[in-house]
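Private note to self, pasted from the team thread so I don't lose it. Backbone tokens:
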């Protein structure tokens, strides 16, 4: 399996505080059968230290060489209106330098603001994957807003914690609905510690397999994630490789 959203780099955000905790996350991921993790620390230009992220990432790569897990680099970018810094650094910020960027919207963001930002990303040829939007209660209560949001041109990443009910039964049921309607492109851990992998990841795969079948679960936990990180520097390839937005037209 491939995990494109994991706060595995120590000492840079709300993930592990030291390298031992990061290595424990890798150990647990390996036990679960995860072969690739895209490290995706939070990115907000005025808050997080990019130089420290790179230093700690390199140290983690060196210390993790004994594990059979590949650690790639990416970010979880706080969604703001498109600015020149984001455009300039989009390859660096993207998942495994794929040109595809993982974005986090505020939980209280209005549907219209979300849709407008996705449209602006697309105009700048930024390919957005939206993290854990299933936790936005406005979308949950007004499903037509969610459909309009996807039609704007974004991919959807669900959190394992939502699927297993950590955030409550309503979010779990909304996640199930999105999965059954094929509105989800990728499932990822959003892990911040080893326990997040141990307690949520395998159970999430089991739940998704029960809801939509094991073959489709494998697509969401592996195949689509593989397509993202292997898109390379080709924007055209990145657009082709994942599920089609045209499914909604």
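Design output:
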């Amino acid at each position: 399996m491939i995990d494109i959203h994991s706060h595995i780099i120590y000492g840079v955000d709300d993930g592990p505080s030291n390298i031992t905790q990061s290595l424990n996350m890798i150990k647990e991921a390996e036990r679960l059968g995860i072969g690739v993790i895209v490290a995706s620390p939070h990115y907000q230009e005025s808050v997080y230290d990019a130089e420290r992220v790179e230093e700690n990432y390199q140290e983690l790569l060196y210390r993790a060489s004994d594990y059979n897990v590949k650690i790639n680099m990416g970010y979880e970018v706080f969604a703001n209106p498109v600015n020149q810094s984001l455009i300039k650094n989009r390859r660096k910020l993207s998942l495994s330098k794929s040109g595809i960027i993982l974005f986090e919207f505020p939980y209280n963001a209005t549907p219209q603001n979300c849709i407008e930002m996705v449209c602006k990303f697309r105009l700048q040829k930024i390919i957005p994957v939206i993290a854990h939007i299933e936790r936005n209660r406005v979308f949950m209560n007004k499903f037509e807003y969610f459909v309009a949001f996807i039609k704007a041109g974004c991919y959807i990443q669900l959190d394992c914690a939502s699927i297993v009910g950590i955030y409550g039964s309503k979010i779990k049921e909304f996640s199930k609905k999105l999965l059954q309607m094929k509105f989800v492109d990728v499932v990822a851990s959003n892990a911040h510690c080893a326990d997040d992998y141990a307690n949520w990841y395998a159970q999430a795969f089991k739940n998704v397999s029960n809801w939509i079948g094991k073959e489709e679960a494998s697509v969401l936990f592996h195949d689509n994630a593989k397509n993202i990180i292997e898109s390379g520097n080709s924007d055209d390839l990145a657009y082709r490789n994942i599920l089609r937005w045209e499914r909604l037209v």
